[in-house]
Amino acid sequence: MNKIKKDGPSEADLNKVKETMIRERETQVRENSFWLSYLQNHYLFGNRILSLEEYETLVNSFTVKKIQAIAKKISGYRELCTGSLNS
């Protein structure tokens, strides 16, 4: 987390994550469980329902600078969940 706060993620790592997120979404939309969860979140929390194209645009809008800014913002929180992407 400290490295991401200081330098941000590498462009290569960020691109891998973006590609994975988009690929997973393309697979998930074929499953009823995805739609059940997606519609529940829309109904309960008012989350917008994004088309695949809108989702791709959103994911592709992530930049090294934006991720770095978010890492700096949440670094002050006492409890932090750390995760990793395994392929």
Description of the molecule:
α2 runs antiparallel to α4. The protein has five helices and no strands. The protein is mainly α. The mean pLDDT is 90.
Tell me about the largest β-sheet.
none
Mean residue pLDDT:
90
End-to-end span in angstroms? 20 Å
Number of helices: 5
**Approximate strand percentage:** under 5%
Shape: globular
Helix coverage percent of residues? 55-70%
Element pattern in H and E: HHHHH
SSE inventory with pairings:
Blueprint: H1 2-7, H2 11-28, H3 32-45, H4 52-60, H5 64-74
Provide a brief overview of the structure:
With 87 residues, this protein is mainly alpha-helical.
Protein traits:
87 residues, mainly alpha, 67% helix, globular
